[in-house]
UniProtKB/TrEMBL annotation:
Residue numbers binding Zn(2+): 20, 23, 37, 41
Residue positions binding S-adenosyl-L-methionine: 80, 108-109, 197
Entry keyword S-adenosyl-L-methionine: yes
EC top class named in words: transferase
Domain 23S rRNA (guanine(745)-N(1))-methyltransferase N-terminal, first and last residues per copy: 19-54
The protein's name in its UniProt record: 23S rRNA (Guanine(748)-N(1))-methyltransferase
This protein's record includes keyword Transferase: yes
Ranges where the Methyltransferase type domain occurs: 103-184
Molecular functions per Gene Ontology: 23S rRNA (guanine(745)-N(1))-methyltransferase activity; metal ion binding
Amino acid sequence: MKKKEKSASAAQSISGKLRCPYCHERMEVKALKSLVCINNHTFDFAKQGYVNMLKKAVNTQYDDALFDARQRIISDAGLYAPVHDRIAEIIMDRTTEESLLFDAGSGEGSHLNMIQNKISSETLTGIGLDISKEGVLMAAKNYDGQVWIVGDLANPPFADGSCRFILNFLSPANYSEFKRILTDDGIIIKVIPGTNYLKELRTELFSNTEESEYENNDTLDLLKRNVTVVSEERITYSRSLAADSLKDLISMSPLGWHADEEQVKAFAGEGHKDITVDMHIVIAVKE
């Protein structure tokens, strides 16, 4: 079975939980080729194995180089492995029936793939959605077993109460839509950077500037104004990265987007620099 057909088949198993971004009617998979609603709005699966459900094309600041760097840091270097382990545990503690794990802002798909690979459940379907076509295309090329969608978090193509788990990993959130699509017993897993996240980049690239320090209070306050937090935990550790991985880290992080070549060379050096990962994992429910 080709990638296009595999993706269509995976979507077919959950098609009752998908809705049309135009008219909000239920979607069905036709001939392992397209998602179609009763009003005949049609979205074809691409040969690479994803489906574009954006109402109009969007240009983003993210390119292939950034997503390549992300994939290597997340999947190859394993920078976030302890965070993935913990999220997988949280999901496995609650997975007892057929359910959806929706990665809201999935980028090139590595976080979702790494987490789902740690979960021994055939009843959990992973869906990654991102507004960047380049990121979703890369996800579909690299990872099988999930449904990859180009879409908008302001209008996610899910029916009301369709998602048991919503993962929001270092990405913007749309809490009104999250609450609409979350099941009554579902949870939002929000991953937020802590004050020491990538502090080495801040110290060496932005010393004596306002970028040298970070606080997550605004993000937490917005979260708590919109949903009910049931637990918070913090995971902090360091990883030693080689020179190539340090360059990838700069390429993928907004902290490094304005760094010049000399700064990159100075930071990467000969490699084997300890990098701090400091994350808050916040679990929230609708009310």
